[in-house]
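Bump. Still looking for ABC-F type ribosomal protection protein Lsa(B) structure tokens.
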Amino acid sequence: MSMIQVQNLTFSYPSSFDNIFEDVSFQIDTDWKLGFIGRNGRGKTTFFNLLLGKYEYSGKIISSAEFNYFPYPVSDKSKFTHEILEEICPQAEDWEFLREISYLEVDAEVMYRPFETLSNGEQTKVLLAALFLNEGQFLLIDEPTNHLDTHARKMVSNYLKRKKGFILISHDRNFLDGCVNHVLSINRANIEVQSGNYSSWKLNFDRQQEHEEATNERLQKDIGRLQQSSKRSANWSDQVEASKNGTTNSGSKLDKGYVGHKAAKMMKRAKNLESRQQKAIEEKSKLLKNVEKTESLQLKSLEYKSKELIQLMDMSVMYDGELVNTPISFHVEPGDRVVLDGKNGSGKSSILKLILGKPLRHTGTLNVGSGLVISYVQQDTSHLKGKLSDFIEENQIDEQLFKSILRKMDFDRIQFEKDISHYSGGQKKKLLIAKSLCEKAHLYIWDEPLNFIDVYSRMQIEELIQSFNPTMVFVEHDQTFQEKVATKTVAL
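Sorry for the wait, here they are.
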């Protein structure tokens, strides 16, 4: 066991005037299974790069641990898998590799196949297994779930639960709950470390927000009341002071000493009230700095004239003359939200592409309603680059509405001026979702929309779908999202 101490860390990119981290301090134990959460663009991956020594910064990061990063960069994917694993962990024996990948339900035969022939999920699993065989290293795991199906996520979560000594960036709430015992959170105003899993952290965070909001409301009332009392006392003091040269109703002169004493007393009371008011204002200013506001999103879908939008009968996708999935049948009616669930490679994305009219080989029949308007969120974001204004013009989006949605999804205005290629993975995905929300459609087809997207935005999107009930066919491996959103599940 050792500690990683962060002291007065301040960092900003050379091209930016805004600090990613500003005078932050905390410490973590290298035995912890640490979940790392925060909004997109807050600096989670940047912090990993600071630990890895990639950037210069002010402050101190003190640690005796050796850091390693996942996903491990594989330079030559044409090599056999066992060769790549031996490069990652040269001291491990073959039987140790085989033992680790068996925990992750990966067949031993992948060891003797070119790495590039493995599915994305298999690549994720074997790289994690090899990295954990390096004794004495503290592993920095960056978004491992993005290429994992629902079953694989449970399996990898159980695998990580057996390990120790890692920081895990993930936005999948179930996944985090299954494998972490501490949470490191980048909040709006600070960085906090708490014991427990994601659910216990969220419960504590929400309670803190509720307490601060109640305290803020009380202080707001106190400040208003004290302002009124202060004004009355100041007025009384001025009136008494002005009466020093006056007379009583009976015509006798006022006692100036008495009047002066009373004026001083009133002034002292006014100053006390002002002091209490200032103290209340200072207390209020310390509150609500970490509130994560998620404004409600809106969606205006089109009403379809028929009772059925889509019908699939005995549909199977074919690759290289072979069937990818057993035949499936389902239909989509207005208000349905159909999730396609299955392992990686079972044809989920291909089914979506067939509905979109892509010319893929298949068996069975597909009937798509005439005049059906579809809005599509694709899985891949690697093509996104260039100016935001060009993206808006190219896709013929309402600029004001589009930027309003992005602002509600926690985009700073400064992001509108950046090249899209510099956006984080989550910000790129939000771009595609915001585009879809601007489009009036009968059917929304979303292919793994939540990859890289932060927890708060996931909940925001869940609330949107539950409020507006759009007709959807989607693929998403976040189990919590499935449970909250889907009305039908089609297993492939």
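The chain has a mean pLDDT of 89.

Edit: fixed formatting.
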